[in-house]
Design brief:
single chain, 114 residues, alpha+beta, HIT family, subunit A, five-stranded antiparallel beta sheet, 2 helices, 20% helix, 22% strand, binds guanosine-5'-monophosphate, binds zinc ion
Length: 114
């Protein structure tokens, strides 16, 4: 989508600090980090949020989860624990309408989240 911020990041029209990329997934650093490690994991193909996941192929969905796991392990996030979050809808704090999973790590986390 031409007017979608994350689609523009996928197309490299907007610069980002990319930490992983394959045919279907992009992982880049959040511009306003809420933890020492704060990454965003997105499908390259635009869907608005998790409620549209069936618009992606099974392989694309798998690649999202697999790349989250691989990246967390590469960064050693499992040692102290990490959090994976996808805010869905304005009421839950979603500010960009392109599916994204936050990976947050290297600090302590409270439960339940606010
Ligand atoms: P949400 O609020 O939708 O759950 O998460 C959107 C995230 O995108 C926020 O954490 C915000 O800091 C991040 N973000 C917004 N604009 C940009 C940008 O231009 N570049 C990067 N790298 N992250 C962004
Ligand atoms: Zn998009």
């Amino acid at each position: 989508m031409d007017d979608c911020l994350f689609c523009r990041i996928v197309k490299k029209e907007i610069k980002s600090e990319i930490v992983f990329e394959n045919d279907s997934v992009l992982i880049f650093k959040d511009i306003n980090p809420k933890a020492p490690v704060h990454l965003l994991v997105i499908p390259k193909r635009h869907i608005a949020d998790i409620t549209e996941i069936d618009s992606l192929s099974a392989a694309e969905s798998y690649e999202i989860l697999s790349s989250i796991s691989k990246t967390a392990l590469e960064l050693g996030l499992e040692k102290s624990g990490f959090r994976v979050v996808t805010n869905t809808g304005v009421g839950a704090g979603q500010s960009v309408a392109h599916l994204h999973f936050h990976i947050l790590g290297k600090r302590d986390f409270a439960w339940p989240p606010g």
